[in-house]
């Protein structure tokens, strides 16, 4: 016999609740919005029907009918495998949740087409705002989202080709300070490991590295520079290449934590007394047993500030429509943290 009850996984509707409670659909709606004019006995009957049927309001449809947003903000990042992004996401969420918003996260894998499609999908779903860590300088999709009235905040790199609030890390200053420390310890052959040159942080950190060498009267030798590594395995291979040079570097500066971890593995395998310095602190950095200096900063604060910028921009847009406030830029400071004893330097 055919099933006349409809699909068993169909979601119950307001009309289903009204039929079970023997009231009108309008009464159900009034109970769901806590209308104090509904008789207590009637309200109790409706809530019992809601519980029995497992009814849940479609908050997105309801918000759209009321002319409000969806209560969602999009967070677009490049590499969820990197703990930096989980900390950033926690920072964002800790702010937006206090304003009745929920963050939805999308991972681009450093691929522009994926990022473009993800942003377009978020705009199509009518998110209330977007926080993005762009994968490159082509940000036309973010500019288009902003032009459609979606508040956009850019994190870890500045906006390109359009105006937006942004929050950055002191990439140049942190890299300069770490390299300066290696130079102060007597190192003159220092290798550089980093993500692709298209990544803003990698370029800025290479600039800080090079400026520190120049300040010490040393050139940046391309033979000691490796860019393009996004995963620890790639970084380990790149570090191994440097360590196998006829005159290998006595120290390595790594421009993010994935490269630092890969370099550590390569140094361990090679058995060399190579000193490491890297951008981004990470868990267990103090247990590696090698001399390691890291450029540390509060990645949670980076996310919190991005969340604050977005909420402020959303508030400005609703309270002063047509009168956008000046765009804001915040830079998160860095500090140097040293782990392990200083390594002996082979002066040859």
Automatic annotation (TrEMBL):
The keyword Signal does not apply. Residues 12-66 form the HTH lacI-type domain. It comes from the Bacteria. GO terms for molecular function: DNA-binding transcription factor activity; transcription cis-regulatory region binding. The keyword Metal-binding does not apply. Gene3D superfamilies: 3.40.50.2300, lambda repressor-like DNA-binding domains. It holds the Pfam family LacI. Keywords: DNA-binding, Transcription, Transcription regulation. This is LacI family transcriptional regulator.
């Amino acid at each position: 016999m055919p099933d006349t009850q409809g699909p068993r996984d169909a979601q119950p509707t307001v009309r289903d609740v009204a039929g079970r409670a023997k009231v009108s659909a309008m009464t159900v709606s009034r109970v769901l919005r806590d209308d104090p004019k509904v008789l207590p006995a009637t309200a109790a009957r409706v809530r019992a029907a809601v519980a029995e049927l497992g009814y849940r309001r479609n908050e997105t449809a309801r918000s759209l009918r009321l002319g409000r947003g969806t209560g969602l903000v999009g967070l677009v990042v490049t590499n969820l495998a990197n703990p930096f992004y989980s900390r950033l996401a926690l920072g964002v969420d800790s702010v937006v949740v206090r304003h009745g918003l929920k963050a939805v996260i999308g991972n681009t894998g450093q691929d522009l087409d994926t990022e473009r499609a993800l942003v377009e999908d978020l705009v199509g779903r009518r998110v209330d705002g977007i926080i993005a860590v762009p994968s490159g300088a082509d940000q036309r999709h973010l500019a288009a989202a902003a032009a459609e009235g979606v508040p956009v905040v850019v994190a870890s790199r500045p906006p390109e080709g359009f105006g937006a609030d942004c929050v950055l890390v002191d990439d140049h200053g942190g890299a300069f300070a770490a390299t300066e420390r290696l130079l102060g310890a007597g190192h003159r052959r220092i290798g550089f490991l980093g993500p692709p040159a298209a990544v803003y942080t990698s370029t800025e950190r290479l600039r800080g590295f090079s400026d520190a060498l120049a300040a010490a009267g040393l050139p940046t030798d391309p033979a000691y520079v490796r860019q393009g590594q996004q995963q620890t395995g790639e970084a380990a291979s790149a570090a191994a290449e440097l360590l196998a040079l006829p005159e290998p570097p006595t120290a390595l500066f790594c421009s993010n934590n994935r490269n630092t971890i890969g370099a550590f593995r390569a140094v361990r395998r090679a058995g060399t007394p190579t000193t490491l310095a890297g951008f981004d602190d990470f868990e267990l950095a103090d247990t590696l047993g090698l001399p390691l200096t890291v450029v540390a900063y509060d990645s949670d604060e980076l996310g919190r500030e991005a969340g604050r910028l977005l909420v402020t921009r959303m508030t400005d847009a609703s309270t002063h429509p047509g009168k956008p406030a000046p765009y804001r830029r915040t830079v998160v400071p860095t500090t140097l943290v040293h782990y392990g004893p200083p390594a002996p330097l082979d002066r040859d």
